[in-house]
Amino acid sequence: xxxxxxxxxxxxxxxxxxxxxxxxxxxxxxxxxxxxxxxxxxxxxxxxxxxxxxxxxxxxxxxxxxxxxxxxxxxxxxxxxxxxxxxxxxxxxxxxxxxxxxxxxxxxxxxxxxxxxxxxxxxxxxxxxxxxxxxxxxxxxxxxxxxxxxxxxxxxxxxxxxxxxxxxxxxxxxxxxxxxxxxxxxxxxxxxxxxxxxxxxxxxxxxxxxxxxxxxxxxxxxxxxxxxxxxxxxxxxxxxxxxxxxxxxxxxxxxxxxxxxxxxxxxxxxxxxxxxxxxxxxxxxxxxxxxxxxxxxxxxxxxxxxxxxxxxxxxxxxxxxxxxxxxxxxxxxxxxxxxxxxxxxxxxxxxxxxxxxxxxxxxxxxxxxxxxxxxxxxxxxxxxxxxxxxxxxxxxxxxxxxxxxxxxxxxxxxxxxxxxxxxxxxxxxxxxxxxxxxxxxxxxxxxxxxxxxxxxxxxxxxxxxxxxxxxxxxxxxxxxxxxxxxxxxxxxxxxxxxxxxxxxxxxxxxxxxxxxxxxxxxxxxxxxxxxxxxxxx
Length: 537
Known about the structure:
- The protein has about 525 residues and is an alpha/beta fold.
- The chain is built from 22 helices and nine strands.
- A hairpin with a 5-residue loop joins strand 8 (about 515-520) and strand 9 (about 530-535).
- Helix 6 (about 125-140) packs parallel to helix 18.
């Protein structure tokens, strides 16, 4: 072997390098936009900052372990692990408490996901599939903007899932112990990051069972030692979830049990057919990058996304027909995983949110890759233009996706983000950082981002009640908090999560006080969004 050999091998992966460059060209510009969302701060940024500074932090259900005198959270929600807190800490330590620091981590996670998808496709299908899948993912708006705000959708979970599949494919090819253990570990970490990764694990288990039944176990012999090795990796990955539930009295399971009928947000888990209709429509919208990205400042869906998938599936079917079903197991995997995610998502512990499909956001790219590989393989030896045609179709499928991504990037640059994703949160944080008064938030969306963006200077007390209607004791609680030495935060009319603004003004008037706006933070396009009030007699 010469020194040139590794370079030649690396050069063969130029499609991955190109795809990564395109992805970063969309993912990195104006990374502070849209504004820092409450969940981004609550589930990673603020805890990372407080841990770095040795300050106390709120830990859900006291589910923590203590190392060196520091209490470390195991989870940030009953179904979301604290792994993204620890992933964010080096970036926050180096770059300070900014949205950009947090999101550099999540963009890096997105890049790793893209590389894992490329590796998986290359091993399962071939180079045409790998290059096409990487390009498709690099320009996919849902993937790009969910990577920019990765904590919002816990993008470490799909990243670990994609790595698990890539390592699993590596094990299947080499039968090495290392890839098998690491595949189990990555799968476990995917579940730890967000429990919905079980959707993919369940789908993979169903696929393996179908394949085993089809051949009656021939070629599927796996030694007990190998099974134990994979389970050891999986167990190590999910160990924090197990520890959390042992400490908290199985809090994760309790939430699932409480949601068996209706969730705390009012979604019925008994109307499974209705939920399925909703989920199918949402999955189609995520594939087309449509209305679920409204908060960027507009809707610029790709009308060709679903037809492109249909063409790809048709090419795969043509390959199977020509090859008399050879390799059907390979072609069944991704569609089965996707349909499995849709079916399992009909049960929820919260609501039927588009973001739940982030765990499967990389699957459509694999379908396109499989279609390109099918065209190239079917035409090989019969039609010399098969390869170039596959490449042309890959570019044609990617072009409208890239145009949609460019439009979304332009929209978020213009507006700064809408509603609770607005850049106005950075403006109000700068204002409050210079004020000595304590702060009370009378709506959702303020406390965690402000605490992070002010470097931990401002801890915001929340008083609003997590329900659509006014809590019965809200006025009484608010009356005890009315003080001329305190600042109060509300959203502008029509922008509230919980309509408490008018109740606040009524309570102020009833107390014989006067409320004066001392600051209004606006979006980049000039719309007033956040109000700061001070009381006087």
